[in-house]
TrEMBL record:
Official protein name in the record: Antitoxin VapB32
Domain of life of the organism encoding this protein: Bacteria
InterPro entries per UniProt: VapB_antitoxin
Organism: Mycobacterium intracellulare 1956
Disordered: annotated span: 43-64
Length: 64
């Protein structure tokens, strides 16, 4: 695997993490988290038959 030394140095400077394996692990975890969120957001609003979720609980008989 070839990793850009300047990119690795910049990541180490910004994070304070100097171990290459730890930097790579954190970078991959961040990439996975960001892409997962992007995909989840892209799913929003794709069900035209869905009804809006209620904003408040309906009153109960025991309301005081």
């Amino acid at each position: 695997m070839t990793i850009d030394d300047a990119l690795l140095a910049q990541a180490a400077e910004l994070t304070g993490v100097t171990e290459s394996a730890a930097l790579l692990r954190q970078g991959l975890q961040t990439l996975i988290r960001v892409e997962s969120a992007r995909r989840l957001a892209a799913l929003g609003g794709t069900d035209p038959k869905a009804s809006a979720a209620p904003r408040r609980r309906p009153p109960t008989r025991d309301s005081r």
